[in-house]
């Protein structure tokens, strides 16, 4: 199983995003909410939530790839349900489909009260680097 | 015209995103590419590009709002065209529609060579805070 | 519970789409596959699948509305997983959120073998006609 | 240039959708509004508009393909701006990008008064059938 560790993805480290679970076709990411991540009205910026969706679905995709395969994002879609406040956010993802050249999955983001704050999907291309 | 200045949106400042132009229903944002913004393969992380799309369309929406109106993002969609490298990125947005309670716009992101790296759209809710 | 019956939505009738189940925040639609619904290579046209997603999520939204409320579609997103063949299609939807002015849900489409052919989401506006 | 003629796509014929212009990376489709295409409140069903977006972007994609290449839809996104009424609809599309295995484009739908009723995008896979 291909894990994402601190030091591997600079932007994940910069905003404090961590992969906390990785299983076949599923992943979980966690992000502590700090003031730098706020938008103008004091909740977490939508771009941070988009980064969590991309990261969580991307981890679920990588969980089924070999070491030689990479998977850049093709497209990302996020629906924002309620403002994200509190201590931390958790994103839980699942893979819907892994084809020969594309993979598609979904992720849900919950706040530290367990309320759903956003839902998103992503399509990723599977490329062999060998 | 409602401008976004440094100090107003913590996450914009944290990643170095600036509103460089704002006109009726149009906006332009700029972001200098720094190593913290990279994904694992050395180009700009897709979450940063999503933040640029959200910000650029959001600025175009705010350009037609009154001081009492706010506009949280309802949904965001991004298509990634090519890896984003180089010195800086520019996002150019236009508003497609401003209704009574919703606004919808589009943004394109170009790298410092003028190549298109991503295209996205966003729907925003218009709320009166008075 | 607000049901959709034959005769209420001309385009549903024209393509043979039926609401077969409606519960609080959930719905199920069925469509028999006929040759008129094909695209050029003999599977069901993507526009038909989009109609099923819109219809299934729309039914889940209507399940929580009062008689005076209507809910036009704001935006729709579909990911196509595999070509849709066989006897019939079933779309199963769930509502993710019902706010004051917007509702958001998801639907999955299965073919008569039980294989997933498409996944989609929709945002709907809630308007009071009184 | 690969044209779409009546008789090639059953569902286009069934709803009366026609390709009226095809140029390098651009296409135009037309649909006469008939009562079968209505949703419950008497405007054109959102699934019909989704079919127009898919068709218009798909034609723009095919305009740059060889005879051996086919291009199934990967994902489709539509934003509905206003109810579609009147005599006919016109969809105008442009290709944003044609890569080795994917193509991405956008389409706008106008009613017979020239008002914008919907905007959408689509990603298509490019497959060689030889």
Description:
Four copies of one chain form a homotetramer. Chain A is an alpha+beta fold and 130 residues long. Chain A has a single domain, classed as Hotdog Thioesterase (Thiol Ester Dehydrase, Chain A, Roll), CATH 3.10.129.10. The first copy, chain A, contains two helices and eight strands. In chain A, the strands form two sheets. Chain A has a six-stranded antiparallel beta sheet. The first copy, chain A, has a two-stranded antiparallel ribbon with strand order 3-8. Chains in contact: A-B, A-C, A-D, B-C, B-D, C-D. Strand 4 of chain C pairs antiparallel with strand 4 of chain D, so a sheet runs across the interface.
Features:
homotetramer; two-stranded antiparallel sheet; 130 residues; Thiol Ester Dehydrase, Chain A; 2 helices; alpha+beta; six-stranded antiparallel beta sheet
